[in-house]
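User: Here's a chain of 325 residues. Predict its fold as tokens.
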Amino acid sequence: MSTHTGPTAADRLLRLLYDRREGFVSMVELAAAAGAPQATVTKALAALRRKGQRLDVSPQGVRLQRPAALDAGLIEQDLGTQRVGRNVICFGEVSSTNDVARHSARQKNADGLAVLAESQRHGRGRLGRRWASPPRSGVLMSVLLIDGANLAHEAVTIAAGLAVAEGIDDIADLSCRLKWPNDVLADGKKIAGILVELSTCPAGRAVVIGIGINVHAAPPPSRLAHPATSLAEQTGLIVERIDVIRAVLRRLDAWVGRIQAGRLEELRNAWLARCGMMNQRITVQVGGRRYAGRVMDIDPLEGVILCGDHGERLHLPAETSTILD
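Assistant: Prediction complete.
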């Protein structure tokens, strides 16, 4: 699957403007970067505006307004991953990035594709819940893995949550915590969620990892069952979504590689180091039944392991479980 040709003049200008951060870039420097006359630069800047980038123009030159709009070229540039994020596509609006990723599984070389959107009409979380995110405010991303059957749903869910927590920490240094099965927390509030869905495809099985991260804003409390937060709220800074996306893709790529290599104990230990649930008594609903007990372990293949109130050992999978507060 090939989503891009070589970089255009607009691509080269965007990379320069993005790397310059808050500084202005003169038209002379832009022309040199584009390898083209200023007339071509003017057309390239107009193309960037049509793609959603906001630009400030002054006698000093041109500056990219922050935060930047999503751009596949900026995300892919020197990413260095082996599998995850080998191809990236960005949309203004889609019904659901998970749906786009699943449909893309029919195409050749789709393994590792990352699908992103500025907004979703029907974004969803686990168990049919809706994932709410104002346009251009968060990371709405799905990663597609084409797999014969070796990547266990449970392990992928745990790895995705861990990769998001690590990626956020790489950029914002928040020391994120994890709540089984799919919540990433900052200051005790939800900052990200994971939805892993499985389907069949011509090459075998499609594993779609849906990731939602609150970057610039969190949904209002009236629309949520539990408190939420955002990177902007936690840091007081404008955090570039592109930086967060790149960090998460790198972390997820590393964990997918470890799962393939059978290094599940590393996954378990890293997850537990960020989990505050051990030895806590929780109630979990699986289907129409409720189970209560103390958390004994989180297993990358079996889910949460409880010591039930009557001494029984319970293995509850992430796919169909939800914690009741």
